[in-house]
Amino acid sequence: MLKPQATATRDLVNLDGTWRFALVQSDIEKEAPWSKPLPGTLDAPVPASYNDIFVDPAIHNHVGWVSYQRTVTVPRGWSQDRYFVRVSAATHRGRVYINDKLVAEHIGGYTPFDAEVTELVKPGESFRLTITVNNELTNVTIPPGIIEVKQNGQKSQRYFHDFYNYAGLARSVWLYSVPKAEYVQDVTVVTDVEGSTGVINYDIKTATPEASNSNSSSVHVVVVDEADKVVAEASGAKGSVKIPNATLWQPGAAYLYQFRAEIRQGGKVVDSYSVATGIRTIEVRDYEFLINGKPFYFTGFGRHEDTAIRGKGHDSAYMVHDFQLMHWIGANSFRTSHYPYAEEVMDFADRHGIVVIDETPAVGLNLAIDSGLFGKKLKHTWGPEYINDQTREAHADSIRELIARDKNHACVVLWSISNEPSSSEEGAREYFEPLVKLTRELDPSRPVCFVNVMFATYDKCLISDLFDVLCLNRYYGWYMHTGDLPTAEAAFEDELKGWVAKYKKPIVMTEYGADTMSGFRSYYNAPWSEDFQVAYYNMCHAVHDRFPEVVGEQVWNFADFQTAATHIFRVDGNKKGIFTRDRKPKAIAGVLRERWNAKLKELNEL
Ligand code: BDP
Fold it and tell me: Which residues span the membrane (predicted)?
């Protein structure tokens, strides 16, 4: 799915700003918030999660629908165009109404969708745009959750993932146009390298597919380098172009060609769309992870889209600052834990040579963690009552939408289809096999992983053989052997030996960390102190360095982040950040900086 773009043949109008806002208090069909101006006096910023904007527990804790509304005018010059409202994310379910008419509905809180306006409003006219957004998580949504009705009749939301269920319109909303007659609907690029020649294999879909074969119009591609020089051209909707002496996209040294897909009619360009394309290869060979044929070592973070007040609202200042901090500390990669991030973030990673493990929102498919941590009776994750066939369909959709959105990003080197599912519980294999197959069919060019939870050790995990890379989240010294680093070290080393003996696959440590109160110091390395966090990471790194099979380390987490208030072991959120929520470094930051910059020097990325 292409991100809207302004070109010579397309326009783009940004609809961000403050929108009218209201909770839906009763039955949404009866209330019909789209049918009239919203009641009340609230305005909400877009993009932002709404939860922390207002000083009102009823809004903060609301479970159900909310409405956003504003007036939009279709530009008067759009008579030869088709036009759409693009919602970059409505978390977790969104409906778009043009005046009184429902024109689109979408489930899945972190991927975009379009609503066509063309036939409903003429150029130059205005319309009432209402977007209703629902934040409910059930056993058939991704991520899943459980809705309970309290004694007072109010709904409450439970979920089994460790980040706050921020909701609303956290990413931009757009109005955009494409040419009415024919337009470029989708572009897929897959790159390769032959000696010093870069190869871009491409597949272009037009809105009228026969167009590419018709006499009157044809599809062309033009590849332009960073100096704006045309370096390759070709005709046809499907094929490949070669770029002699190509500059490759490398971790830490990005280079992007503009791959321009054009529809031409009688020598005239009637539509064009450009994809920023980094030429690079990815390969998993034995236990190595190769980018452009060179062994790669992931340094960096599991992150969250999370800041004060905005919640998951995309913010360019935070984005640029966070990338600056990643550069400063020597991070060459991150994982989009635990959902697809804003498209702007992916573009930025492409431009700055940061490697991304791209994850679906399939997190919390695990009732064993909840039972294990709180000593409750073990409940079964996989089966008709919780994660069932319908959930798997939603999960498949989340994979389809992630790949459709992010397939052209050079930065994406690995798909992660789930975080910490209950992979040692019977039923896991039956659940995951078709999803892995689907992912490989949709994108045969990238390796696939899932992220393994600490209970599902090498002798218990039922699905690791289905994947290309072993991604492990381990908390030896924190959740296990808390504070006892020598015992933790031995246990961690033992477990890694088990994985290495059983599988010949690269291992990336995708999470390890310790909650740390910024400013709490201890002579005795007490857990929660900055000193303990340093000692903990030094222990983990000593173990990583004993295994050539470990090809990466992404610490948990980049910054402190908000979690559900029902997690009584969290005080105002998860504190495993290397930086505080407002991006101040803890003592560990300097230690990581030294280690990772030395690694990057070894890899020639500095
Ligand atoms: C892991 C989860 C992550 C949590 C982390 C933690 O993948 O989302 O935040 O543990 O407990 O289980 O800090």
Answer: none
